[in-house]
Write a structure and sequence with these properties.
The structure is a single chain. It contains two helices and eleven strands. By secondary structure, it is mostly beta strands. The chain has a domain of 101 residues: Glucose Permease (Domain IIA) (Distorted Sandwich). The strands form two sheets. Strands 1, 2, 4, 5, 6, 8, 10 and 11 form an eight-stranded antiparallel beta sheet that branches. The radius of gyration is 22 Å and the shape is globular. It starts with a helix and ends in a 15-residue tail after the last helix. The N terminus is likely disordered.
């Protein structure tokens, strides 16, 4: 790694001083791997993420996506199934991904088992009705999609957003 840094520093210095290397071009950055949506489009976001103010405080620890009963749910990224089945009054699937993120999907009839390795986009179950607080208008129902790292809940939409910058027209009539 030290040699790579020295080589990159040397290339930067050579370019800054006006010298060029024949045929050399700046390295292309590696594409950022994004997660995929757990439901096929269109999938409206019916309820956004609302972080809790304290670990056990109120909030919405995920997003509710609109879908239909029986619709396939896919793994947002590759990982290991940590849980698949009933939990209290619901059924869910939890997948641990490289880097320490865990995604959860509920309510779902799982088609995977604990210990299964899944790939991005692989079907992990089908959507059920019955997510408490769902604001969908029937026949649409809600998939609650959550993500956390250790005990910190995160906004799952950040996993799929591109973060692109969009330029807007500049008003020409400003003083």
């Amino acid at each position: 790694m030290a040699l790579t840094l020295i080589a990159l520093f040397g290339l930067t210095q050579a370019t800054a001083s006006g010298a060029t290397l024949a045929g050399a071009s700046p390295p292309t950055p590696a594409p950022v791997e994004r997660f995929t949506w757990p439901l096929a489009p269109p999938h409206p976001v019916l309820r956004p993420f609302q972080p809790p103010s304290t670990p056990y405080g109120p909030g919405h620890r995920g997003v509710d996506l609109g879908g239909y009963v029986g619709e396939p749910i896919v793994a947002a990224d590759r990982g290991l199934v940590l849980y698949a089945g009933p939990l209290a009054d619901r059924s869910l699937v939890s997948v641990e991904h490289p880097g320490g993120l865990r995604t959860t999907y509920e309510p779902v009839t799982p088609s995977v088992r604990v210990g299964d390795r899944v790939e991005r986009g692989q079907v992990i179950g089908v959507l059920l009705a019955g997510h408490p607080g769902c604001t969908a208008t029937p026949p649409m129902v809600c998939l609650h999609w959550g993500v956390h790292r250790q005990r910190v809940y995160l906004d799952p939409l950040r996993l799929v957003e591109t973060g692109r910058i969009r330029l807007l027209p500049w008003p020409t009539d400003l003083p």
